[in-house]
Amino acid sequence: MTLFERAERVIPGGVNSPVRAFRSVGGQPFFAARGQGAYLWDEEGRRYVDWVQSYGATILGHADPAVVEAVARAAADGTTYGAPTRREVELAEAICARVAGCEMVRLVSSGTEAGMSVIRTARGATGRSRIVKFAGCYHGHSDGLLAAAGTGMAALVLPDSAGVPAGAVADTVVVPYNVVPELDDGVAAVIVEPVAANMGLVPPVPGFLEGLRSECDRVGALLIFDEVITGFRVGPGGASGLLGITPDLWCFGKVIGGGLPLAAFGGRRDVMEALAPLGPVYQAGTLSGNPIATAAGLAVLDLLDAGTYEAIAGTAGALAAGLEGALAEAGVEATVPRFATLVGLFLGPGPVTDYDTARAVAGNGLYPGFFHDLLDAGVSVAPGAYEAIFAGLAHGPAEVDLTVRAAARAAQGVSAAMAATAR
Ligand SMILES: Cc1ncc(COP(=O)(O)O)c(C=O)c1O
Fold first, then answer.
1. What domains, with CATH codes, occur in the chain?
2. Contact 302, 382 (CB under 8 A)
3. 3 Cα to the center of ligand 1, angstroms
4. Which ligand 1 atom minimizes the distance to the CA of 55?
5. Would you call 346 exposed, middle or buried from its count of C-beta atoms within 10 A (0-12, 13-18, 19+)?
6. Distance 225 CA to ligand 1 centre (A)
7. Residues near ligand 1 with C-beta < 6 Å?
8. How do residues 206-246 score in pLDDT, each as one tens digit?
9. Is the peptide bond before 351 cis (omega within 30 degrees of 0)?
10. pLDDT tens, 266-313?
């Protein structure tokens, strides 16, 4: 029996997160055995250039020596205590020092928890109920935020999740990305990925985030940037720092945990002080601010500076240009958006500006073949057309070159598939 068959007997779909199951690209997932830098090896010993990097959690690459050492040292002192620790303070300070306008943070264990808790905080602080989110933006799988949520749901063509009662989403309004909605004074908060990366990569059009900021100010609603992907990835101050727009609250995750379960939400002091034990909004966690996760996060942040972000953006730029060229050479009109260190890939013509335009391309059936051709050539990108490509510090010219050469061969398959459908 294969490992996947064993997995399917005891884990629904054989996976602990649906997008890993390869359902939208066909076939069976490989099982990762180990990673080093830009590379992953599967249980059969095959090596892949890994552009998934745990969906953005490992910006330094796999098993970075500084992270491994920090984790080992922390673990030797105990894995969790239930009492506050020095490193929680240091990590909170490191986040607040880097993100202008973020005055306090609370550490949690996943991006879902951050999203769920930031909404409760915003509602508690404003005394209002309604939340506005954008179609195609993903903020974790909590009930109230699981409407038109992109990524895994989009890849599985699930319009909504079963098990979410109507009441849980009654106060969630979903509007199109890149259009500033008109708000009223019933809105507690607007939550947005400032650079959308869960419907493929869709950067904000000029004026969108500025418009959200002023519309929120007009009605007294809080603006929340979900920077679980973009935080500490597109630059030291995340998307808000790079774009110069300051929300009231943020969600962070992925990079700040160095590959361990750690996330955070934070923002304006007066709003964050609504949280217990200071205020009336309850939020808690046995493993929140875990000593091993904070050690990993601090080790990562320590190694990221202007120079490293510039290097990663250079890699991302070379990869985007290479993919675009390889696809164009094969006669495939593709859209390869890039925002700083993030790259997207749509196997069809743009412009892609929102969930509808993203779905029109991502759902055209060309991605699965391209994905499998890359995988066969030893290049791992996400097994779903709605994910970003995560360049990191461990990727360099050799990995870009190997990937672009594999993409050039895979593009021939895309071109043939397009010709076959046209006939
Ligand atoms: C923008 C954004 N917010 C929230 C989440 C949820 O994070 P987690 O998977 O850690 O629960 C994700 C996960 O991909 C994300 O991309």
1. 3-59+305-422 (3.90.1150.10), 65-303 (3.40.640.10)
2. no
3. 27
4. 14
5. buried
6. 12
7. 55, 110-112, 115, 138-140, 193, 198, 226, 228-229, 253, 263
8. 999 999 999 999 999 999 999 999 999 999 999 999 999 99
9. yes
10. 999 999 999 999 999 999 999 999 999 999 999 999 999 999 999 999
